[in-house]
Each structure stands twice: as C-alpha cells, then as structure tokens.
Amino acid sequence: MRRLWAIAGGLALLNVALFGLGWGKRAAAPVVVRPPSDDAGAPVGPALRVGLVFDVGGLGDKSFNDSANRGLQRAARELGLRVETREPAGGADRDAYMTRFAEDGADLIIGVGFIFSDDITRLARARPKTKFACIDYAPRGGPNGELLASDGKPFPDNLVALTFREEEGSMLVGALAGQRAARGSKVVGFVGGMKIPLIEKFEAGYTQGVYSVCPACKVVSAYAGSEPRAFADPTMGRELAMAELRQGAEVIFHASGKTGEGVFRAVSEAGKLAIGVDSDQADEAPGRVLTSMVKGVDEAVFLIAADTQAGRFTGGVRQLGLREKGVSWIDDARNQALVSPADRAVVEALRGRIIAGEVRAPTSMAEVVRP
Predict the structure, then answer these.
(1) Does an H or E element contain 322, and which?
(2) What is the value of pTM for the model shown?
(3) Are 230 and 224 in contact (CB under 8 A)?
(4) Does residue 171 sit in the same domain as residue 157?
(5) Could you tell me if 28 and 128 lie in one domain?
(6) Which domain holds residue 173?
C-alpha cells in the first residue's frame, strides 16, 4: 500500500520550477537561473528543468494560479532551476503542453488543478522516467486500503498528488462570518465555481463554521456551473452574489477562481463583505474583504521542486491542513478594523481544537451537522 504523506512543519522547504522552451501560446516569460556552481563559479551540474501548466483562468486570477506561480518563481530564484509555464485555452491544451514538456526533457512536470488528474496519470504511466505532480489531484482508495489513481488503477510511482484539507481553513472563515452575521441579518452566502466534491469541501467547512458560532444563521449557496469554465466567469459570479445579497447575506465566501472577481464587485456595490480564497485577496475590494482562506499552493509547488532537486521525490499523496500550515486565514493590518478581538479569539480557539483533533471539519454537505 502506498504511503499517504502528511506534510509536517512550516513547509519551509518547498520548491518548484519550470524551464524555458519557447513554444505554445500565452506563455509566461521563462525564468532561467544559472545552474548551481562551486566556489570558483564553475557549474557543478545541470539545473533542474520544470514545466508547469496552469488551471482554468490562467495567470492573473489573483488566486489559485497566481499562488502556484509564486511558488514556481521562488523555486527558480532560490534553487537555481530552469522554469517555464503554459496557460491552456482548453482541455486538449493541457495534455499537449504536458506532453511537449516531457518530450523536451523536463525533469518535473506540474499540473495546477484537479482537472489534470486523468491526463497527468496517463502521461506518467507512458513516461516512467519523468516525474509528475498535480495540485488537487483526486486519488481513490482501493478495497484493501491501497492508493489508486483517478482512473481506479494502480497509482504511478512517478506521480505525486498535492492535496489540501480545505475544509479546515474554510471552517475558520465560516466561524468569522457567522459571528459577523449573528449581529445582523443572520444570513451569509457562498459562491462556488464548478460543482464538484473539491469545492463542496469549501462549502461544507464554511457552513459548519457558521453553525458553530451562530446556530440560528442561514447559509445560502450557489455554484457558477458544472464545467471548468465556471472558474472563469466573473459575470456569473456577480449575478450569483447579487442574488445572495438580496436574500440578506452579510458576508459571501467565494471558492470560484476568477469568477470571484464578480463576487467582489457585488459586495462592493452593496456595501457588504466578501471572503477571498487561496491567496490574500484584500486588494480585490479594499475595505470589503473580511478575510481570505489561504491555501499553500505556492508552498506545495516549492516543496515538490525542492524534493525533486534533492533526490527525495516519492510518488503518492501529500496532504496539507491547519496542522501543517497548508491552509489558514488572513488576520493582519489590512482587515484589523473588520475583525474584533472577540471574533479573533473564537476563530483561533477553533483552530486549536481542529489541530488537536477535538473538532473535525466536514468534507461534504452530507457530513455537516445542522443546528
């Protein structure tokens, strides 16, 4: 049975990179760093070559993809890696870009998003000498506890699934939103991108967090669609948020990628509050972002690159939650005026209970304990 990895510590050793190839459209400018050298400046070995393909929405989403890129660029700077990224326009591009990276000699290929799961599994099996990693990969459990790939077959040795306990961070921001709503309309909202189990984890954790502090509160939820483009539709995001605001929502948490831009517009127009996702999104609606549920995509990318460079790459699953500092919430000077000391204390107490195992965040709406 393959090991399920829990990533310990503050994730200080996290590394990733992408190499310069010069093909495809919408390519981010490659970062090329000199190979490691000795004290005399002579190269001691070739730089690791890494290719990364972004999820729907691409660079500039100020969320999931931008976080992955930060980890990649950090790996290029700090580890001396040759890196390059690609932004797919559709499903066919994902497979084509990863295949091209492999053909051109990439040491490590990273797919950013669960929609890469099937394509990256096929490619990993076809190219066992190349190493692959996928953010939010969706593995399966076998009848005897063994780890299976997304297609139900044995998990490739040269593939690592980088996953997160999003429900834990979402529960924290839900508790914050619930306290805010308890002093007002007792209604909060949630806007998801594509309706899939991964995004339901955000909704479930958030909903349970709201109920934990405000049993009388109501959570209204909506999803932008059932296709990947649901993560890149700001117009739909605004429409869904406006509908929830009309129902009295005081705060809306989005887990919808670029679609969230519409959520921020809606709350700004209505004078209400939003909660960002994946990255600190305070700048998307200054003064109107209560907090953000941050997800260490950048750290995970950096980690797998560092391990690959150091010869520590091992296939399987690596999972990050509150304990491993893979998810958290933003509490800093920019939202200090919106978060009272009492509200902050409740959220931090809940964090401690989750880490201690006293509270378990639900991973689906079916697991939510309702008042």
Answers:
(1) none
(2) 0.81
(3) yes
(4) no
(5) yes
(6) 166-294+328-367
| Full DSSP string of 169-211 | HHHHHHHHHHHHHHTTTSEEEEEEEE-SHHHHHHHHHHHHHHH
pLDDT string in tens for the chain (371-residue length):
434 333 333 333 333 333 232 223 333 333 333 334 434 333 345 689 999 999 888 888 778 899 999 999 999 999 999 999 999 887 678 999 999 999 999 999 999 999 999 999 999 999 999 999 999 998 888 888 889 999 999 999 999 999 999 999 999 999 999 999 999 999 999 999 999 999 999 999 999 999 999 999 999 999 999 998 999 999 999 999 999 999 999 999 999 999 999 999 999 999 999 999 998 999 999 999 999 999 999 999 999 999 999 999 999 999 999 998 899 999 999 999 999 999 999 999 999 999 999 999 999 999 999 98
Residues 109-148: tens digit of each pLDDT: 999 999 999 999 999 999 999 999 999 998 888 888 889 9
- Is the same domain home to 219 and 248? yes
- By CB atoms closer than 10 A (0-12, 13-18, 19+), residue 341 is exposed
Task: For residue 63, give the CATH number of its domain.
Answer: 3.40.50.2300
Contact residues for 159 (Cβ-Cβ < 8 A; gap 6+): 120, 121, 124, 131, 132, 133, 134, 137, 149, 315
Amino acid identity of residue 241, one-letter, is A
Number of domains in the chain: 2
Helices (H), 223-322: 234-246, 260-270, 297-309
Residue type (1 letter), 118: D
Rounded-to-integer distance, Cα 85 and Cα 31, Å: 9
Query: Residue 349: CB partners within 8 Å, gap ≥ 6?
Result: none
Mention every residue, 6+ apart, whose C-beta is less than 8 A from residue 338. Answer: 273, 290, 291
153 and 21 together in one domain: yes
Three-state secondary-structure class, residue 134: strand
